[in-house]
Amino acid sequence: MRLLFVFLFAVSFTAPLAAQSVNREAALSAMRNAADFYHGEVSLHGGYVYHYSLDLNQRWGEGVATKDQIWVQPPGTPTVGMAYLRAYEATGDHFYLDAATDAARALVYGQLRSGGWTNSIDFDPKSPHVADYRNGKGRGKNNSSLDDGQTESAIQFLVQADKALGFRDIPIHESVMFALDALLAAQYPNGGFPQVWTGPVPAQPVIPATYPDYDWRSEGRIKNYWDMYTLNDNVTGYVAATLVEAHRTYDDARYLGALKQLGNFLILSQMPQPQPGWAQQYSYEMKPIWARKFEPPGVSGDETQEVISTLMLIAEVTGDRKYLEPIASAAAWLKRSLLADGQVARYYELKTNRPLYMQRRGDTYELTYDDSNLPDHYGWKTPSKLSELGLQFSLARAGNPATDIKTKQELAESASKIIAAIDSRGRWVDEYDGQQIVGQAKLAPGQQYLSSQTFSDNLATLSQYVRSVVQ
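and the corresponding structure tokens:
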């Protein structure tokens, strides 16, 4: 099991390509060509968005981006910056450190007064999309967000950039310290975190999760659900990895303490039988609650799998086996809740455990048990990870965390394909196949585009290959 959350996923290619011979020099050349292009021609204000048209005239994050906007949420600026750092570690070439520093300074610019980040940063002070930036060059909302790894990805990258720079870049170091202090202040006494904060959170009672004692279908809706305890979209997993990285880098006991408290919250928030999994959001009374109008209270298959992984990480880092104790009952619940196709439902109805879905009627949504006409903007079902989690759990109980290390042969094969896929301008070009991609880019089937995820994945894999080759 990885100790650090990694923003880089499986390598993407524009088309299947036969492996060819590869060596360190070829990998170094491809890395530099690609990074020269991405940093020199794609980057604006030091940062990045998700996708670009080949002529770079169109840019997309969560929707169309202007020339003055960069994205924080992965796979935006922190994702690309982290890939530059991996390249610097592999090569010692300060070009990559300089590129990473540019990305870090772009994030510092867009840090909010509340200490975290929202999903994007706008460098046009007159834009309606600017927020209340700490540097005084913004205005408007001051909502630091943990949704989809927004603040967490920024912190993790800045921590590693701070370390790579020897803690000597004062604006970056001060930004990291300010962000980490704000993150700790956003942790509730029970160890949980909200989805969004604007300042230190109020004290709340420390109590275990229970089922609602009212009709949750029509009662108990909370408008400001983002202030409540949130697990949705792996908030606790992202936060746990951030605290681990901060503790390892700065050796500050506060971060380890916050990690333990987060683990305590995950123990408290496990639902009682007959559904010992986890919900997406909880009220201060520790009852599952509504979030958006298509996100009902329920026990979540996806969030439960994420929490299991997070608990194993916390147990590994802290050395405390109590964080493994909730896992067996949760895994058993997941196993008996599998859908006919082997997936897990995003929502299971409270107590009955029936898979619960939504149907759209114009601007409204209706609860249903019928999965035949689901809105396509949301993940109502997710693949089961029980086999993978079971292996990790067995290793964790034995005190041997799982690793994810490719063999030299596997790295060489991946590197060969990546090098073969780069074009004469140093680009890895993707082609839209009609499948949903991160963000809301409006691409036509077959349209070619550039992806920050692909660039980061490929640069990181080549870096890993270079490090594996004896010079």
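(Above: one complete record from the training split.) The first strand starts at residue 51 and ends at 53.
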